[in-house]
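In this supplementary section we document a worked example of the pipeline. Step one takes a protein sequence of length 423 as its only input; no multiple sequence alignment statistics are reported here. Step two produces a three-dimensional model, which step three serialises into C-alpha cells for compact storage. The input and output of this example are shown verbatim.
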Amino acid sequence: MSIQPAFFRSAPAKRLLDRTAKIAAAPMTLHHALDDDNELPILRWGGCEACAFVASLPDGTGTCRASRRRAAALAKSQDVPVTFVCHLGFTCVSVPPIANSDYTITLGPYIPAETDHDIAFDVTHGLRALLGSWPKNAPLPFELSDVRSVPGGTVSAVAEWTMEALRETAAAVEAEEAASNDEDAANMASPESKPKIDNADSAAPTHGYSWTSLAALALLCGHSRIVRTALKDRLEEVGAAPNASHETARAFLVQATSKLLETARMMGGATENAQAAYPAFVAEVSANRTTPEMLAAAMRVLRRVRPNNTQQLPDYLPRLVDVVYKQYKHDLMLGDIANTFGLAPSTITRALARRVNGAFCEYLGRVRMEQACRLLRTTRLSADAVGKRVGIRDQSNFGKLFKRYVGMTPGRYRKHYQNKTTR
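The serialised model returned by step three reads:
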C-alpha cells in the first residue's frame, strides 16, 4: 500500500491521530524515513523541555533519531508497536502505522506509572553519555514536571489501536480511490457497462466496521443490550483467528469502542462525557483479564452517550429499533410499521438513511445477517435452517444476502469463525 504524507493530514487520519495523542497523554511525532541518516518530520503533538534541550545540542537530534530508528526497525520487522527506553532514560513506543512503509509514529517520552525509581538518576546518566560529563549533584538543565506519568498498559493499548485504525482508514481510502478509478474507466469504455462482481470467497469477512452504525443507533436509542451483544459477537470473531490472544482482543475492544463513540457522535449523539471517561477505560481494560470484564468496562463508557439536545432524536426510532430486533424473523414491511407509528414511510427512510446509510430493507437485512453470523458460529444448523431462523426462507437468497453483507459465503464464514465447542 503506497501512502503519501498527505494521507496523515487528511480529515479522518488527522482526527484519529489527534485522539491518539489526547488519550495517550504523551507527546507524539510522525516521521518519514528518507534514508539511513535523514527523516522528514510530518506531524507533531506536544513536547517537553527535555526533548527541546536535547534538540538544541550539536549531536542531540542525531542521537534522538538513532534511538528512534533502532526501535522503528524492530517495530517494522515484527509489524507491532515496540516499547523502548530512549537515550535519556524515558519510555517511548514506536508504532509502524502502515505495513511495509517508512513511516514511524513515536509516542513519548513518558514515565510508566508502574516504575518506582527516581527518573532523574536515569536522565542524569543519559546526559553524561550525551555530553561526555555532567556534575554529580548538579541540577538538570530542564524540568521533568512536563513528562507525564502514564500507565504503561494504556500507551501500549493506544499504540495497537492506532496502528489498526490507521491501516483500516488507509485501506478504505485506497478502496474508494480504486472504485472511483474503476468507475471512471468503465464510463470511458462504455457508459452502459456494469462493474464486474468478484465471486471468489474472501478469507475474512469484509463487513469491517459496518456493524458500528447499527450498534451506534441502538446506543442512542437506549438499547445497550444490543450494543453489548454486538461487541461480544465481534470479540468472538477476533478470538477465532489462529494467532488470537488476550492482547488482540483488548486492542480490538479499545479500537471498537472508540469507533462506536465516533459513529454515535456523527449521528448526533452527545459523547463528551464518554470521551472524558475513555482514557480511564483504556487503562482499566489493560488490567482486565476476562472478556466479561472488558465488555463491562466498555459498556460503562458507552452508556454515557446521550442524544444531543440540539439534534433531537426522532421519538419513533427507539421503537423502530426495538421492533426490528425483536421481530426480524417475521415478514416486516415498512408500510405496516409506518402505519403503526402514524408516519409516512419516507419519514422512516430518511431517518435511517441519515444514520445507517441505508433504507429500511437494508437496515433489516443487516440486522438479520448479524443474527445469522451468531447462529453460524454457535450452532450446527445448516445454512438453510439459519436463513429460515432469521426470516429468509429462500436458501439461494440467503446465501446472496449473506455474501453481500458479510463478504463471504455462510459456509466459509462458519469454517473460519465457528466456536470450537460446536464443531
